[in-house]
Specification:
Oligomer: single chain
Radius of gyration: 25 Å
Largest sheet: 8 strands, mixed
Structural class: alpha+beta
Number of domains: 2
Keywords: Membrane, Signal-anchor, Transmembrane, Transmembrane helix
Membrane topology: Single-pass type II membrane protein
CATH topology of the largest domain: Spore Coat Polysaccharide Biosynthesis Protein SpsA, Chain A
Number of strands: 19
Bound molecules: 2-acetamido-2-deoxy-beta-D-glucopyranose
Distance between the termini: 28 Å
Family: Belongs to the glycosyltransferase 31 family. Beta3-Gal-T subfamily.
Organism: Meira miltonrushii
Subcellular location: Membrane
Amino acid sequence: MLKSPPNRSSRWEKDGETTILINDDDRRELPVPVPRMTAGQACLWVLTFLILSSGLIGLVAQSSVTWRGIMQPLEEDQHLAFPEASPAGLVSSWKSTNETITTPTESAQTPISTSTPTPSNTKEMPCIPGLYDDMLVVIKTGASVMYDRALVHIHTTLRCIPHTLLISDAEMDIGNYHFVDVIQDLDPDTLAHEQLEYYRLQQSALQKNEDLGALAQRSKGKAWDLDKFKFIPMVKRAWQARTPQTKWFIFLEADSLVDWANMKIMLDAKDSDKPWYLGAPSWINDNVFAHGGSGMVVSHAAMSQSVGKSTEDWMVQWGSAALNECCGDYLLSRAFKSFGINMTSAYPLLQGDNVALAPLMPDLWCRPVVTMHHVKPSHVASYWALAEYSMQQVAEGRRNHSLLWRDIYTIFVEPSMQQYKLDWDNLSLDWEFTFAKHENGSEEEKNAFASPGGCEAMCRRENECKQWSHFGMTCKMSRAVRAGEPVKREKGSNALFAQTNHISGWMLDRINTYTKQHAICENGADFKFND
Ligand SMILES: *[C@@H]1O[C@H](CO)[C@@H](O)[C@H](O)[C@H]1NC(C)=O
Ligand SMILES: *[C@@H]1O[C@H](CO)[C@@H](O)[C@H](O)[C@H]1NC(C)=O
Ligand SMILES: *[C@@H]1O[C@H](CO)[C@@H](O)[C@H](O)[C@H]1NC(C)=O
Ligand SMILES: *[C@@H]1O[C@H](CO)[C@@H](O)[C@H](O)[C@H]1NC(C)=O
Ligand SMILES: CC(=O)N[C@H]1CO[C@H](CO)[C@@H](O)[C@@H]1O
């Protein structure tokens, strides 16, 4: 995929540098990658080798107490970036962070009891009639992943949304929820094209009652290739499915997560009679477009000035264009642009990170959660258990907003924060120390890339550094706190040899200072975006 979340594309691209540079055979002889080596550097490498091969001793020497536990086996919960707790447990732990949620009017009468969780504590909230009538919510998925991804939304995201449209590449049903095959809306020439071979395979598998998930696995990635063809007919179907009340068309994917109360606050501040096409910007070359997985929101005016002029022309002009494009969301931005409708960035309200990857602190701290992407069904459910309660409070006027990212930090991330985690990465971006760039650097710089302890020490030296990660001969550090994700340990590697493992660490004291100093979002939730 060419797409990357906003403000991150260039930085993440650099990730390639951190992958190990040598193959397994070389590694046995020389535990560090050495691109070009002079005599002086050779000394450094010998030294490094000694430090690293003395393993624990070397690490302990680098930063005493920190590395005491490095040989201990991983505990199971270290692998959970986003723990899956029971809904009742989550809600009560959230409620125990009293400052976060206590509002002046709430105190005496909270609808959820904090007593021992029982199933009745987690009973669904009643839907409030009419609340979301002005939205048409469109979720796009594919027949091969429908049960894996879309099912959870039926019981959560979509439960109180009266007007929905489910887009797929085969006609299917889950209970009352119908999934529409929009590929069939393409013209016959496009349908016959080789790029749609998977669609035809899937059609015949459906007729024979074959397992579509298994078909997708056999066809390795071909199912995903259908995705780009769905966007143009999806927008046509959405226009046709509007009701007299529809002001906003909200396009999501089945691995997106949404907080409706925050979404509604965001949209109520905008005029749907203006041609809004809101999204999280992504770029292909220099062309900006709204990233599909982050959620795209199109106003009634924008729809009526484009697809609404003539659904036939819309399909004739843009339906087959997917044959020549990589990505459907990019194609859609071109289609809207041809009607004079440019995307407006709603980042970071609409955004494509999940809990593990989002820069929780300080960037998102007082920002409301509106969308996330790459969210597992279990996490949609966990989030929902919490958001349903806060959304209800917003609807009752007892809160001015639903969940903020700092609530996400407090509930899902803080409990598993620790000084360091083994086999953990995707964190740190603001500083980078590598052999290639710092082979002639200061002692501190050389130590930083040479070992996790040196990397941690370097982070300690930078006042603003809140976390670091070490892998190979690279140390990365960052101002923002990201929860990160487990990384699979390289085959045959050993915890003793630090550079074959990802290790990430946090400056817990700095992080705690930040959370204390920013315990209150003094200006409330920050719903601003540039427009
Ligand atoms: C939570 O409430 C208790 C008791 O009301 C109070 O002592 C404590 O300071 C509060 N915590 C925060 C973070 O406000
Ligand atoms: C949309 O963007 C293009 C440049 O990419 C600009 O020329 C055009 O005026 C913009 N249209 C509107 C309505 O702002
Ligand atoms: C909501 O916002 C208003 C105006 O900013 C403020 O006066 C009020 O206290 C807030 N209500 C809650 C429950 O936070
Ligand atoms: C480090 O110094 C050596 C010898 O002077 C030189 O060949 C090499 O290019 C330098 N490396 C960097 C990254 O500047
Ligand atoms: C978003 C991102 O950068 N993900 C990376 C996390 O780390 C794994 C393993 O190092 C990479 O494969 C991902 O691309």
